[in-house]
Specification:
The complex is a heterodimer of chains A (about 90) and B (about 550). By secondary structure, chain A is mainly α. Chain A has a domain of about 45 residues. In chain A, about 65% of the residues lie in helices and about 0% in strands. Chain A is built from 2 helices and no strands. The radius of gyration of chain A is 19 Å and the shape is elongated. The two termini of chain A are about 35 Å apart. Chain B has about 550 residues and is mostly helical. Chain B has a two-stranded antiparallel sheet with strand order 1-2. The longest helix of chain B has about 40 residues. The chains are: A mainly alpha (about 90), B mainly alpha (about 550). The interface between A and B is large, with 37 and 47 residues.
Chain lengths: ~90, ~550
């Protein structure tokens, strides 16, 4: 369910794949605990395990922002195409 | 622990509490208030804009969970408690994906609770009842966690509590916490929490900023803090014969860590109070936009979690881990600022507890009382029932506090999560597909609830025979994982298998009153209600 938001019978566009990846990436990164369960390198004295996860708060925020912007653009072009298509009929 | 009452801290604490209480009672008069209708009491008259709404929603994350339970878990065992950070990170992609659909369909059909949606989508009163009961039950331990938070603060200030043998003095902080919460919710409903949320968040920001800058400097920097913590975790715990904890989760604990994070993330937005807050936002795009700002809360949560290490480095030694952070504040801060910090924790627990109990009470009145007991209830009756139920929900919370192990308060929230997660297939499944059969969903729910409760009952801790934790061996995998997630997977498997069987047997489907386009409608589209109808009184749908 964390894949493509609002799957419709219409096409899977490259933009939507990117959106899905943006939303799915935090799951892979955070649930793969083995990839970050270590103390080094430390950052200002904070072990890797802790600062890495806090850094992911920022990374996932950036990813969600990207997904949001792409989604809005996708919706806009979609609407525009629908209107154009409606006029042509 | 210091002996006796910390006078200055207590005075500052009482000052803020009184100020907030006065605000609470005035809130009842904020704009106009006829507190007799449930609409007025339970939804604050629905006059909240988006901004207030998101303050309320932020309140879901900034509770005693953040301030007391998570740092306490870290204080007790190290890395294992930090799962709260990935948990809150995973919430946002989830919200982004499914809540806009819930917003659309709810605003199209006037749904105010998850039960409403499930009934409308699957045409099943039984399933709707199951979702409502689960919501009410799961909210209780979450409120219990808030009570434990207030209790910890009062305890550290020396208001009763401690190791006193007299049961009344020992439980005095808890009784006070309960009394304040009950009186405050009963008198002013949702208006009070909304107004106080501003005060609460301001206090909390100040305390966080001071705590995460001042304390590490005083303790000689993070290097020093983590070195001391590492040393402390290496020592053997006499109760279990194993090391107390670790700075980094070992191979064996990684499953637990990941399943706790994922399970908690899936659970958060199933709670009645979070759904109410989400649905009151102005448009579906507002929800998505907010997912890009809310992660700031997670960053704060991570920084607060580090306070658990600081408590160890500062040499705080408490039997009950929940007292670690309040005790740290009392030791590190001048008395007056400790009072401010305690007020922040206390009010930060009080407000969410009030919101949660009101949401649970609304759920009861709307989806159980009106649907099953008295369909023709008057608005005044509904309000009366809601107020009474909100009190009962709090009594239920009190029972959890008194019967469960208070020293690991994070388990309260995790127990609630085990239950509420079982409504996920019906709710989120229903948002995307109607393939699941209503009876299969009900059966899956029942099995998930039964398995989850029994597995949690079977977990023993050093202090307690039952409900001692929230993780157990995952059958078939052999690793230790969060019971809620295991029960959830079981729930889904049963739902899918039974759906195949029921579809093959041509079992009758319920009537679906929603249409595919309802799930993508936005404010401004035809038939979309910008303001939802009140939860119960005067519903016109």
């Amino acid at each position: 369910m964390s894949e493509a938001p609002e799957v419709r019978p219409t096409v899977v566009t490259p933009v939507r794949v990117v959106i899905a990846l943006c939303l799915f990436a935090p799951f892979v990164a955070m649930l793969w605990v083995g990839s970050y369960a270590k103390t080094d390198p430390a950052f200002i004295g904070i072990p890797f395990f802790y600062w890495y996860q806090m850094a992911w708060v920022l990374i996932s925020t950036a990813l969600t922002c990207t997904a949001y912007v792409l989604w809005q653009r996708d919706q806009r072009t979609r609407k525009a195409r629908q209107q154009a298509g409606g006029a042509a009929k | 622990m210091k002996d006796g009452v910390n006078g200055v801290a207590l005075a500052v604490f009482i000052f803020f509490f009184l100020a907030v209480t006065v605000m609470g009672f005035l809130a009842a008069r904020w704009r106009k208030a006829e507190n007799d209708s449930l609409d007025e009491w339970g939804l604050g008259g629905r006059s909240f804009g988006t901004w207030v709404t998101w303050f309320l929603l932020g309140g879901d994350l900034y509770t005693a969970y953040t301030f007391v339970a998570v740092p306490a878990a870290i204080y007790a065992a190290g890395a294992a408690g930090f799962f709260a950070v990935p948990y809150t990170i995973l919430i946002y992609p989830l919200i982004f994906t499914f809540l806009p659909r819930l917003w659309s369909v709810s605003h199209k059909h006037g749904y105010v609770t998850t039960s409403d949606f499930v009934r409308g989508r699957f045409g099943s009163k039984g399933l709707s009842l199951a979702v409502a009961l689960t919501g009410i039950l799961a909210t209780m331990p979450y409120i219990a966690l808030q009570l434990v938070g207030i209790q910890a603060v009062l305890d550290v200030m020396g208001v009763g509590g401690g190791e006193d043998t007299n049961w009344f003095i020992k439980d005095l902080p808890l009784l006070i916490a309960f009394g304040v919460l009950a009186a405050y919710t009963y008198s002013s409903g949702l208006r009070a929490p909304a107004l106080i949320a501003f005060v609460k968040d301001t206090l909390i920001y100040i305390v966080i900023a001071v705590a995460i800058i001042y304390i590490p400097i005083k303790l000689g920097g993070f290097d020093e803090i983590f070195a001391k913590a590492s040393e402390a975790y290496g020592q053997t715990n006499p109760a279990t014969g194993a090391p107390r904890g670790a700075l980094v989760p070992g191979e064996a604990n990684q499953w637990t860590y990941a399943t706790l994070a994922l399970g908690s993330a899936l659970a958060l937005f199933m709670y009645p109070h979070s759904i109410t807050a989400t649905l009151s936002s102005k448009s579906r795009e507002v929800i998505r936009r907010n997912t890009t700002i809310l992660p700031l809360y997670s960053l704060m949560l991570g920084l607060l979690a580090l306070l658990g290490f600081m408590a160890i480095a500062a040499g705080i030694k408490v039997q009950n881990g929940q007292l670690a952070i309040p005790q740290l504040f009392e030791t590190m801060f001048p008395d007056w600022f400790a009072g401010v910090a305690f007020a922040a924790i206390g009010i930060g627990a009080l407000v969410p507890a009030a919101i949660m109990s009101i949401a649970a009470a609304n759920l009861f009145t709307r989806n159980i009382y009106k649907d099953f007991i008295r369909p023709d209830a008057t608005p005044a009756q509904e309000t009366k029932v809601s107020k009474l139920v909100s009190l009962l929900v709090k009594v239920g919370a009190l029972v959890f506090v008194l019967t469960m192990d208070k020293t690991v308060a994070i388990n309260f929230q995790l127990l609630g999560g085990i239950w509420i997660l079982q409504t996920f297939p019906a709710l989120v499944g229903g948002l995307f597909t109607r393939w699941f059969h209503r009876w299969a969903l009900l059966a899956g729910w029942a099995v998930g609830m039964l398995y989850g409760t029994m597995a949690a009952y079977g977990v023993a801790s050093p202090t307690q025979k039952h409900f001692g934790g929230s993780s157990a061996e995952i059958p078939g995998i052999g690793e230790i994982g969060y019971i809620g997630l295991t029960a959830f997977v079981l729930n889904v498997v049963i739902t899918v298998v039974l759906t195949f069987v029921l579809r093959a047997a041509k079992a009758p489907d319920g009537i679906d009153e929603t249409r595919p386009e309802d799930y993508t409608a936005d404010a401004g589209d035809a038939g979309v209600q910008v303001e939802l109808p009140p939860a119960t009184a005067g519903t016109s749908h």
